[in-house]
From TrEMBL:
Subcellular location: Cytoplasm
Gene name as annotated: murE
Residue numbers bearing the N6-carboxylysine modification: K247
Residues bound to ATP: G133, T134, N135, G136, K137, T138, S139
Natural source organism: Brachybacterium paraconglomeratum
Protein name per Swiss-Prot or TrEMBL: UDP-N-acetylmuramoyl-L-alanyl-D-glutamate--2,6-diaminopimelate ligase
Cofactors, names only: Mg(2+)
């Protein structure tokens, strides 16, 4: 039996870097004086990681919470760094290692400027779409990219599910990335790689972390989109106000030329007022005024058909997945495509068939028991997913497998438990990505949000695989199982180790096994397990 080929990841660098001289870089940064003899150096790449330095690179040595990056200057020199970019503290450490340095007050912010310059300002050589918000970023950027590819347009996507693109010759490429929004050197390197392969459009998720930490600096998106704002990442931002202000940075002339903003929530309505670029609004909730309004939707198979009122009259869209939030995502994708000059019946048709995303309300089985895998890892996203599935015609009971990630915002854990118990018939609390935390402690915090008098049957299960198997054993004909939290991830992070684990494969296999040995489970057979 032949094995499925593993995608070969390509570096986040162009094959033929444009480069820049030290003199050009110093001028662009207004950098502190350096040895004039360094002006002739030609820089061909930029990196933050001393282990990833290539000969001719500019190495950014940043101050850190634990230690200064410049302490690794000797390693950078050994690997061929031509120059360091650092602050006053770092310059002394670089000098000890014999590495010349440009000195700036904020080397993290300066790194984006350096990366854009060295890579020849690649964001100006293709159309760019940036999407921010708590939920919907991956769905929208992936839908845009798949729609363009279906129309024969070379396009790429950068985000949570990875970085990939199709070049002008029709060849597919995958680039290794580890963050939703890569660090500035990788981002500009990826865009330069896309530009040299004649990609026409790059769609990108822009996280709040990236905006605060200057990862997306020096990219002025042709159009930026805001989807929503719900509680998440407060371990980083502290408050919802700071979280909102981070998102708002994208809607300034430094980051985008125009905006598309969902005004279904108050954060979106506020952003539409406060943005300092031209903004077009859209809404899916009744009574909310917007430039484009989804006024009616009805189920059609597993998706839905929606009527939209806009400045030019009425039109019809088809969302490939169920639920209001996927109607919103489809409408956002259509508006973003139109903003970069891609509109018309062929775009609407392609969007209707290509607007699905692996691990986002993904239907993995529908033979008696419906099996769904979704990335919903916040209380709001989980509520949307469960509410959507409850409304799908023919649904009897909802069985949800869920948990919460470790080393992330702990305050959302009890809220997720409360939502699950309020909206599902059976709740199985298990492990998501515990990372460095104790899995049992995370489960306890999720369970703490579930009222003692809940009508849901509640189970706590140590081990995600066992939890999925329990869900299948409890499900009967016309029930829906939702495995929430990890989506299309193919690994589970436990104690610093990533173990192979794919919710879709586990759920599909468990349902297939159950079909081979059918067993009817009545409500009286189920134990609350608390």
């Amino acid at each position: 039996m032949s094995e499925t080929p593993v995608p070969q990841h390509e570096p986040a660098r162009p094959r033929r870097p444009r480069g820049a001289s030290v003199a050009e870089l110093a001028s662009a940064l207004g950098a502190a004086p350096h040895d004039p003899g360094d002006d002739a150096l030609h820089l061909t790449g930029v990196t933050l990681d001393s282990r990833a330095v290539k000969p001719g690179d500019l190495w950014s040595a940043l101050p850190g919470q634990v230690t200064h990056g410049a302490r690794f200057a000797a390693q950078a020199v050994e690997r061929g760094a031509a120059l360091a970019l650092t602050d006053e503290d770092g310059s002394a450490l670089c000098a000890e290692a014999g590495l010349p340095a440009l000195v700036v007050p904020d080397p993290r912010a300066a790194t984006a400027t350096a990366a854009a310059l060295v890579q020849g300002r690649p964001a100006e050589r293709l159309a760019t779409v940036g999407v921010t918000g708590t939920n919907g970023k991956t769905s929208i950027t992936t839908a845009i990219t798949r729609t363009l590819l279906a129309l024969g347009v070379p396009a790429g996507v950068i985000g949570t599910s990875g970085t990939s693109y199709r070049d002008a010759r029709g060849a597919d490429h995958t680039v290794a990335t580890v963050r939703t929004t890569p660090e500035a050197p990788e981002l500009h390197g990826i865009l330069a790689r896309m530009a040299e392969d004649e990609v026409a459009v790059a769609s990108m998720e822009v996280s709040s972390h990236a905006l605060v930490l200057h990862r997306a600096d020096e990219v002025v998106f042709d159009v930026a989109c805001f989807t929503n704002l719900t509680q998440d990442h407060l371990d980083f931002h502290g408050t919802m106000e700071e979280y909102y202000r981070a998102k708002r940075l994208l809607f300034t002339p430094e980051h985008a030329r125009r905006g598309i903003v969902c005004v279904d929530d108050e954060w979106g309505r506020r952003l539409a007022r406060e943005a300092t670029i031209p903004v077009t609004t859209y809404a899916t909730l009744p009574g909310v005024e917007a430039d484009h309004r989804a006024v009616a939707a009805h189920s059609e198979g597993y998706g839905s058909t929606v009527t939209v009122h806009g400045p030019d009259g009425e039109r019809t869209l088809h969302a490939a997945l169920p639920g209001r939030h996927y109607v919103a995502n489809t409408l956002a994708a259509e508006l973003l495509l139109a903003a970069i000059g891609r509109s018309g019946p062929e775009v609407v048709e392609a969007l209707a068939t290509e607007g699905t995303v692996p691990g986002r309300m993904e239907l993995v089985a529908d033979d008696g028991v419906r099996g769904i895998v979704d990335y919903s890892h916040t209380a709001d996203a989980l509520e949307q997913a469960l509410t959507t599935l409850r409304a799908v015609p023919g649904t009897r009971r909802l069985v949800v497998v869920m948990g919460a990630g470790g080393d992330r915002d702990r305050t959302k854990r009890p809220r997720m438990g409360e939502v699950a118990a309020r909206l599902a018939d059976v709740v199985i609390v298990t492990d998501d990505n515990p990372r460095t935390e104790d899995p049992a402690s995370i489960r306890d915090e999720v369970l703490a949000g579930i009222p003692e008098d809940t009508n849901a049957q509640v189970h706590e299960v140590d081990g995600r695989g066992a939890a999925i198997e329990l869900a299948v054993s409890l499900a009967d004909v016309s029930d829906t199982i939702l495995v929430a939290g990890k989506g299309a991830e193919t690994g589970q992070q436990i104690g610093g180790i990533v173990h192979p684990f794919d919710d879709r494969l586990r759920l599909r296999d468990a349902l297939h096994t159950a079909r081979s040995t059918p067993r009817r489970v009545d409500a009286d057979d189920m134990d609350e397990g608390r």
